[in-house]
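Case 515 in the screening queue. Each case pairs one protein sequence with one candidate compound; here the compound is nicotinamide-adenine-dinucleotide. For every case the pipeline is the same: read the inputs, emit a complex structure as tokens, and attach any notable structural observations.

Predict complex for case 515.
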Amino acid sequence: MVSVYKHEPFTDFSDVNNREAFQAALTKVEAALGGKYDLVVGGERIETEEKIVSTNPANREEVIGTVSKATRDIAEKAINAADEAFAEWRKWDPAARAGILFRAAAIVRRRKHEFSAYLVKEAGKPWKEADADTAEAIDFMEYYARQMLAIAEGKPVNSRVGEHNEYFYTPMGVTVVISPWNFAFAIMCGTTVAPLVTGNTVVLKPASATPVVAAKFVEVLEEAGLPKGVVNYVPGSGAEVGDFLVDHPKTKLITFTGSRDVGVRIYERAAKVHPGQFHLKRVIAEMGGKDTVIVEKDADLDVAAEAIVVSAFGFSGQKCSAGSRAVVHADVYDELLGKVEALVKQLTVGDPVTYDNYMGPVIDRAAFDKITGYIEIGKGEGRLVVGGNSDDSKGYFIEPTVFADVSPDARIMQEEIFGPVLAIAKANNFDEALDIANNTEYGLTGAVITNNREYIERAKRDFHVGNLYFNRNCTGAIVGYQPFGGFKMSGTDSKAGGPDYLLLHMQGKTVSEML
Ligand code: NAD
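Case 515 output:
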């Protein structure tokens, strides 16, 4: 009997003991920075000449680690290793596969602050965000392991007299996992362990900005007893190695999380059947967002201001679920704007090694240039209320920035900026607010701040997003509590951390025997 799933609690940093423990982990990780990490293919370590140098976005000079970079030849080896390992791994008892996830979760839990400290350093995450990222990784392992046990026997089907019918799920084969840097641990871990526990084998290509935390996790899986070749670790250029892995005729399933454009490219490429390929590839693609917080005139404006600010500026707006748009009823617009401005002025920006900094840097030079470019665009599209400044002298720091009086069609209302930039628009009634909220190509998350039951019911029906929240922020979905995934160009709505997720990694098989 397995215990009931309960999500991993967040660390209470108001407790001085917890702060000291986290600080000690940071000190330990700082002393270990600059290590060398090899590729892992078929259980063998492979060092390549070309490297990815992972640096701290808060301090470019600090090297987190130097990671070997996969070539196409190595990617080919990794696919073959995964294909060979599949022959045995698919026959493992699902409970034994789940057991490896439980063990890996226990190892990570013991080293929780250490993993979070790597996220502070490699991804620029403030303590609380890093802690939540690690907790989510643990949750994915605990939740998917239990889900596997629940679906291992298949589902009941009917049998007529004289026949016996069965319906159960079988794994698919080689799975290419392509993960983003923004939940460098949680999403990388969740999208890796879901195919594993369902009996598939994995070629993992993590984001180039955060390969070290992924290397550390592969070590955990090995320590937990995962056989050789079941996970292969091949960081490399998205365009070079990514395309190759997606196109490969032995690839059965691709699970991608990242930007809209890369997701669309993968979806299109995966549709092509290559010589020697006897199957259609399946793609799970979780992509971008342009998420909206709607505020009605009856709302508690303190709740609304808090929801807007947390949604827009948590982890510097670098969440697919970030509420980068707010749509506010005209009757409360000015008052709410004042409250938002006051809260944003209290936010601190700086190196996230310091607990007190609410926001750290953005991830890299390309992100910095893109976001500051959007701030310039915003100055022509709205009224700058607060923020707008940036500093790239040491790391990539950008102030939380708010534009008001923005037209619903403006670029900063339509395009995913993926940084600390909030656009606010005015609506005259709830219908207009919903129309504005639905007017982007994305459909990931949204929030409505209201106590009006009629509006709540209408939003449930008509606010076209995968994750809808009332009277709270639109970020922070918890595994097993708020399954996560988006509509429209936000992806294939796989609902990570939900009861249907694992089935996307398997094929239903019907067996019928005449007795
Ligand atoms: P990205 O698309 O730049 O990169 C994601 C991954 O794709 C990386 O590993 C990258 O190396 C790889 N890649 C790049 N080009 C490739 C190619 N041609 N073939 C194969 N792989 C390729 O995204 P990012 O900057 O790492 O992450 C931010 C984006 O991810 C945002 O758009 C955000 O909204 C989205 N995101 C979505 C979710 C979700 O659940 N919907 C969650 C997190 C992030």
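Case 515 observations:
- The mean pLDDT is 98.
- The radius of gyration is 23 Å.
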